[in-house]
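Example (one chain per record):
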Amino acid sequence: MSPTPRRQRDEHTDHGRQRDGRLGPRREPDGHPGTGHRDSGQVGDARLRVGVVTNDLAIVGGVERCVLEDTRELVAAGHDVEVWHRASAAGRGATARAPFDALGVRLRDARDYRFGISTALRDATRFVREGLSIRRSRLDVLWLNRPEFLPWGRTVSVVSGVPLVVHLHHAPNYRRLRPIAGGRTHYLAVSHAMAEAWTAAGVPAARITVVPNGVDTRAFPAAAPEDVRRARRVLGIDDATPTVLYYGRLTRSKGVLALLEAWGQVLTSAAARQPVPTTAAAESVRTAPLLVLAGAVYPDDADDVRRAVAALPEGSVMVLPERDDVVPLLHAADLVVAPSIEPEGFGRVVVEAMSTGRPLVAAAGGGTGEILSGEWARFTVDPTDTDTLARRVLDVLEEAVHDPELGARCRTWVDEHYGRTPHVRGLLDGLRAHARR
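Predicted structure:
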């Protein structure tokens, strides 16, 4: 396991003060690509000039993936788009710019979005300069995808005269937002949980519209039997091994240490249960499941993760590096686990997994709990209760085999409730409703 992360694969991450005391993000988790929907343009007729504000163009997290997907949708709907962004890491600039260049959008270099109390005057001066630059762009609406940079967004909105729409992808970075939450500002929350969290921090509830994220189910297809066998063969997993997948940041806050603690109980209990076949090989049986962890190990938690893996029986855990294309991992799995202790803003891993027909066990709180409502609520758990987590994992592994329609119901749930079309409609409605008139 490498202690140095390159990219992220889960939905959200810790945000807060950096070592220099400035407010800003740590690295964001990753998402997965979608494709533009040409019917996006059916939502209203007015052509907008939209300024998209993000951090890095490189896909280093779920926010960056969402920005790229949604920018495609805006262009497909006929809107005029320019993207304000920070410079990508050395050696990744051209690669990061390529998909945006292919869309024909204008790319604008932004400076430092961060705001610090000790550097307030210098920061505000820098924000005013960028506000003047944005004024010259004659935008109809400024769409800020990094809510941790709200002071920047509010300042440039006032200076430029462009209304601000802030996308609330994650929990608040500030305790008291009311003094800076007003003006010509509206907020789009990825879940009701995020709307409530930002309201508690001081954003007026009337200014928040909930627009859940959505995935293109075509980008996360259901697995045919040959897809499962191929994916397992590449990973070196035999068809008879019950396989549980976690992908994302390998950190304590994402529930990885709780999962590893529960995994020891899973192995003990599985040995005592009647062996059951896997979804990959109905004629074969095996009682010893495999846990696959795919993601970046962060320095703060690296030693704890290594020790927890080493404490388990050899071969019971497979650790893989983070990757952008998670579909083969999903196809190889019988079950996905998303046990984040830190409440997820949305829960993209949940909808990605269900889109491929994979059931999952996920945290009952935050955005994941919202997605798994109704029939799916029984798949949620308090991830700090490792006994229950272990039992739920084994129960769902068995159900995945005994209920051959479970995968199809998972995919239908995502297609009907968390597909791209309702997300794009909500996004366009939100931008249009609050654009400059």
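Caption: The two ends are 53 Å apart (CA to CA).
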